[in-house]
Design a protein that fits this description.
Elements (H helix, E strand, L loop, with lengths): L27 E6 L5 E6 L9 H16 L13
Antiparallel strand pairs: 1-2
């Protein structure tokens, strides 16, 4: 099945060699530049927020459990860094 064109327009590169993408749905794109001048942008998600390693989840669960039990450290004094 061919791709369906959702939007089509002519864009111009500004003096700083930037191109504005109207209605962009993503913040990051992989860019492919071909010898004939064609440019292909593919949306990218840099880190999948749904993938948290089990070891990290174990640490988070342990920390929350300790906090609920009242096992917490004293507040940090950050004034010396001001």
């Amino acid at each position: 099945m061919p791709d369906i064109i959702e939007n089509e327009y002519t864009a111009t590169i500004d003096t700083k060699k930037r191109l504005t993408i109207r209605g962009a749905k993503h913040h990051h794109y992989a860019v492919q530049v071909f010898k004939d001048g064609k440019i292909v942008l593919s949306p990218r998600i840099l880190v999948d927020p749904n993938l948290i390693p089990k070891s990290t989840m174990k640490i988070i669960d342990n920390s929350v459990s300790n906090m609920k039990k009242g096992k917490v450290s004293k507040p940090l004094n950050l004034k010396k860094y001001e």
